[in-house]
Amino acid sequence: MPKASTTNVLFTSIYNKVFLVESFRQAYRRLKISGRIIAVDIDPFSAGLQFADRGYLAPRLDDKKFLPKALEICRQEKIKLIIPTRDEDLLYFSRIQDRLDKLNIKILVAPAESVITCQDKWKFYQFLKQNNFPLIKTWREYNQQINFPCLVKPRTGKAAQGVLVVKNKLELNKVNLQGKIIQEKVAGEEYTIDYFADFKAQPICLVPRLRYKIVDGESKIGITKDEPEIVKWSRELGKKLKLIGHNTIQCFKTPAGRIKFLEVNPRFGGGAPLGFAAGCQSPEWILRMLKGEKVKPVKKVKINLVMLRHNADIFAPYDKINHF
Prior knowledge:
26% strand; 15 strands; six-stranded antiparallel beta sheet; 12 helices
């Protein structure tokens, strides 16, 4: 009998995303699927490299040696799927998707046009406006409609980096707005929605979770909630953007109950384990889809499930790390 092929996946920029490696390893075990988890990063001290079945050091993404190295790893490890985990990786891999398709390697990433839209706050605002989605009022320059205090943000950025709270017009006049946007300061509760879609961009599962405590732009305490209106709008937004795989959609719910979309990150987010625990079984579904199985939509997930995130220390002999 011919030996069954293994379903090997490659994570890029793994860094400290140990939860992803461990979640996929558990999925392999539950499904009794043979496969290896391969991870790459530029830093030999990345915790994720210690948990993968095989870790590799890779050049920087802007190094012309990166792609040859990545393709060499894919051939050597018989990779079936590449999972970009960093914002900068998404556009790079979405643009070479056709090339990797010819090598029978799938990439868990949305189309390049959607990635560009999601990563530019002004383009994302325009997309929401053109498609009649609930949005946060946004400007590129001073407008009489602006209510203070307001926020000034880089058009491209993450984890609340470079965000300014501007109290009045005088302060705003002193800000260099090149490469920035002005946004209304929204009052209300902030939500992240774990959104999973199959390889044909058909939505499978959505889990709204309240960002109960946020530190430096990251959710440290999250609670899943029953929010039909958020789910309805998020489903339509995900379909319009043609998202695939696991994504994070962020929005506000105002005290009046209005939804206002903040951003979409077309990748796994740091709080994704709460979505997994609530019923969005992304690692299992991804492995099943790679085997050619159809995944059915899930309508019911666990609500009022709380996640308390914490750091964990990892200990390893220096020689084990230095071998990279």
